[in-house]
Amino acid sequence: MEVDSVFFTDRSGRVASNPLLDQLPSYQSLLYRRKSSTAGTKRRNSSRSRLGSGKGAVSTVSRQDEKQKTQAEQRPIRELARPMAEKRRYNTQRLAEARGLSSWSQMRQSTRRLLRRLREDGQEWLSSLKLWRGDIHLIEGMFGTGILSYFSFLRFLVMLNFIIFLLMFSFVMLPIIIAHHTSGNITYNPHDGSVCSVYPSSARRGLVIFHEHITDLLSGGGFLEQTYLFYGYYKVDKIHFPKMTYNLPLAYLLATVAYLFLSLIWIVKRSATGFKRNLVQDEDRFQSFCNKIFAGWDFCITNENAAKLKRSSLLYELRTDLEEERIKQKIADRTRKEKCRIYVIRLILNLFVIGVLASCFYSIYIATIFSQKAQMNNIKVNFIVDLIYEYLPSIVITMANFITPLLFSVIINYEDYSPAFEIRFTLMRCVFMRLTSIGVLLFSLWSQITKCKEETCICGYNHLLYSCWETRVGQEMYKLTIFDFIIIVAVTIFVEFPRKLIVMHCDCGLAKWWGQQEFAIPQNVLEIVYGQTICWIGTFYSPLLPAICTIKYFFIFYIKKVSLVNNCRPATRPFRASSSNFFFLGVLLIGLALACLPVTVSVAQINCSHACGPFVNYNTSWEVVPASVSQLPSGVQTLLYGLSSEAFAVSFFVVTCLAMFYVIALAGAHKRVINQLREQLVMEGRDKRFLIQKLCQAQKYSAIKSPGARSQPRRSSRSSPSYHTSFANNFTDSVFLAHPTPDSSTHV
Questions:
Q1: Mean pLDDT score, 387-403
Q2: For the chain, which residues make up each domain, given as ranges?
């Protein structure tokens, strides 16, 4: 069937009406909408068209054409979606037009072109400097974009921790280092001779055994306690340079607020792209099927095994969609008795989950108290037992984080949820377990720090056991970071590599049932989110902890890469949110919110240690802010007090509400535009289906009318019309006809 036979033209060259095009679903829907309009609207539209809609339409079209032409002229020729011959003619036309311009206009055009080229070269050069650019491209080519998102997320955390380290180093550590090598004078916090200011440092120990240095290195005590690593080392009040005085306590507090705020802004900025993509992709089921069939393949895959796994993952997603539809239908057909039975089972299982979580949290609480008492009483048995005492809370937290996900994955099978909701609900339980365990650890520490009798509470905290409680909290966060890294390395070396060897070289049924290790993206993401939450909490108590986390994630990248290439394969049951970083960043935001809570409480509520740290002269860390404001000029004080007043707060709240209402209205308008574009895509799909059916009917009709077609030998080439006809028929019958669409006259 020739393409020209679809259209009819008269002698003047204008396109005439075509009965075939009039039967398109989009045209029928347009007629339906026109018929459903009221008579008054018709009269108003007709009067507007008589008064000047013709000129207005012409002017609107001309303005749009001019705008598109201007945009096309500003874009480089290689970016235009045109054939090569037309690009050459367009380039010749541009050169001819440039000769007729003045020298000033030619210079402006050449300068603009040069600046654009320099900007593109600069962007390309900056992209070439990205960390692990080649490694990430290799991972993308072997395993696709799903696993790529994990390594990109890991690179983001490396850069974030490095920026946090630079922030703390520049405003907290660097002034002290510079003052020792310049003419700057350091004013240390005075020792008033009271009981609260006594700090029995464990660094002043005489001769120690060699293995105790290893214990100190793993626990953060001993020689590490009085270094730049922990809060207690910074006893500086002010640093006097020749032309300025540096307030270290204020800088310490503002740097803490700055790294938390910077993390929030950076995460929100990165997650906005994924959120907009998820909002646009909130489509109906038929559109989801079409996207998986036509645009679901990952063309970055170059490995044959990865291609097979990608094919199986697409098949799994289609089966998952069909299973969800089946479960929705099953839920709709449930009787009242079945609903009551399911709800009772879910209630019992959720109560069991709550009991498991409560027992885990209680175990963490008991382990923390026991470990603190053993350390305070200086109980020394041997090297191994001492390490167990030091790392007992970390061991209990790691065991809880290892056992509970396995238990949750078994329990979820009896709750009768949809497959997609099963994965999300299990992950949210794991997130709650991992992040809340850190909160329970901090609560256990603070319950011991603030627990004291009346005669021992003269300092506001238990100074007999915790003369510098901030350093003690920093040591716990340091131990959690080190132990988390040790566990990741140990699992990779002693579990994943032996499993690969057993599966490859053992032919027993148990090894085949165990199978090759799968790279589970959500579980690996939860590991690094857990470590990043520890880093955010511990940076206030251990300013060098971001540098340790940067090195930790740097090595984790190569460990996970080697394990992925040699031991693992992509998960056959993919997590749908793994294709974008929105879920990862959403979980990271939850971790940031949890990290802000204990830091805020310790800064604003708990009394500072009077024996160490930069806030010795203040009851709480936040008191340094009003004390510093009181030393400013009166005009600046008036401005700051005005910004913190209730009148400004109310005005700011009103303006924020108005801006929020405007953004909500703008989002509603954008949503309506997206819905209209989605309806257009649906109608275009129906038009294509209609034309494919007409094409198949025309080819069948022509094959029946031509008697010589049957006597011709059957061609098996894929370029033959019979192959395309059978492909179109099979595709239409298997995909489109499996999801019936409304009648062509139905309003969309």
A1: 83
A2: 134-203+211-297+333-631, 642-700+717-748
